[in-house]
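hiii so um. not sure if this is the right channel but i have a protein structure encoded as tokens and i wanna go backwards to a sequence. like what aa goes where. can anyone help
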């Protein structure tokens, strides 16, 4: 009803409520600020493919790509998938890793991926420039040569390194080798957390160099697949890869103890270290607060107690669990084992 002689205002057309916004008028700065509130999936698969202007706005802020964390997506599946161990899937992960390193422009701080290749990892760590984006620096010098001046042109490629990378997780990456890890060690000196679980081509040599080059490393995860009974992995992980399980657990333990004295968390699930390796860790890594030895079948309860007594800061100790019923491993392939008494105890473990 009109009041004071004024006519009723026409109602706003449906769909033009207060919640509607015209994003086309937003400046690149405003768009980049809005994108900073998006999750990785929304940014990569929603905003950036939308249009050229949005993609340019996202690229204008390298901090948007400072973290590449694919771990939540992997964990959402709940278990390994056979597709993840194919070359095609590795190429997809590599493409994302290379793109993130390029867009971050030297500000890459967190990388959590799986099934990447060694070349892609080295490229992300070292930020090797591609032909299309390398910056060619031309320097022209005039050098006296008798009565004439000789013009000398020096061309140098200027690459962007990633010294900001502090967290690196590359679980289940069979193509990552010692060579690529040496690149990581030389280019990422401020690493504080490293997860190389299920990377069977990475040896104790990499652990030595990483420890020497990254003095601030406080978290190391170096687990291997359950070698006591691999039936839970046979449908997904290639059989030849399971058979290539690292055997030099003590050598790796000694490398850790000698080069990583500041470690606070160490995860070695199913590692093949013996009491010799464990004692070395207890002597060299005095600051350990968390030690996970689940599935380490070559250890004895007495050896574990002795090592734990030397770790004064130890808060959490996960023992190998000498009492592991077969049904705990979800062995569908050997379902008849579930008929056994749950108190069944394998003699593989030593007490």
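sure thing!! here u go:
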């Amino acid at each position: 009803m009109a009041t004071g002689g004024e006519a009723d205002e026409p109602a706003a057309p449906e769909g033009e409520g207060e919640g509607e916004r015209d994003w086309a008028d937003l400046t690149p700065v405003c768009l980049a600020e809005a994108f900073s509130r998006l999750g990785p999936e929304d940014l990569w698969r929603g905003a950036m493919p939308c249009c050229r202007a949005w993609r340019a706005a996202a690229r204008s802020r390298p901090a948007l790509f400072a973290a590449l964390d694919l771990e939540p997506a992997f964990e959402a599946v709940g278990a390994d998938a056979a597709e993840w161990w194919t070359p095609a899937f590795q190429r997809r992960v590599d493409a994302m890793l290379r793109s993130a390193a390029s867009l971050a422009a030297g500000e890459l701080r967190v990388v959590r991926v799986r099934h990447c290749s060694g070349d892609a990892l080295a490229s992300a760590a070292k930020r090797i420039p591609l032909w299309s984006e390398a910056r060619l620096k031309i320097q022209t010098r005039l050098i006296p040569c008798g009565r004439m001046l000789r013009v000398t042109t020096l061309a140098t490629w200027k690459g962007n390194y990633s010294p900001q990378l502090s967290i690196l997780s590359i679980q289940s990456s069979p193509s990552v080798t010692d060579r690529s890890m040496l690149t990581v060690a030389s280019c990422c000196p401020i690493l504080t957390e490293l997860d190389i679980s299920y990377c069977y081509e990475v040896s104790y040599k990499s652990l030595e160099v990483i420890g020497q080059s990254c003095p601030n490393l406080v978290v190391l995860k170096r687990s291997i697949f359950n070698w006591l009974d691999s039936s839970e992995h046979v449908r997904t992980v290639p059989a030849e890869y399971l058979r290539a399980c690292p055997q030099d657990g003590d050598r790796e333990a000694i490398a850790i103890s000698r080069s990583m004295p500041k470690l606070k968390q160490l995860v070695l699930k199913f590692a093949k270290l013996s009491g010799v390796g464990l004692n070395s860790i207890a002597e060299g890594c005095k600051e350990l607060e968390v030690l996970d030895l689940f599935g380490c079948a070559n250890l004895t309860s007495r050896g574990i107690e002795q090592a734990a007594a030397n770790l004064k800061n130890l808060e959490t100790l996960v023992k190998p669990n000498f009492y592991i019923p077969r049904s705990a491993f979800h062995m569908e392939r050997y379902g008849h084992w579930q008929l056994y008494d749950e108190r069944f105890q394998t003699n593989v473990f030593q007490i």
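oh and The two ends are 89 Å apart (CA to CA).
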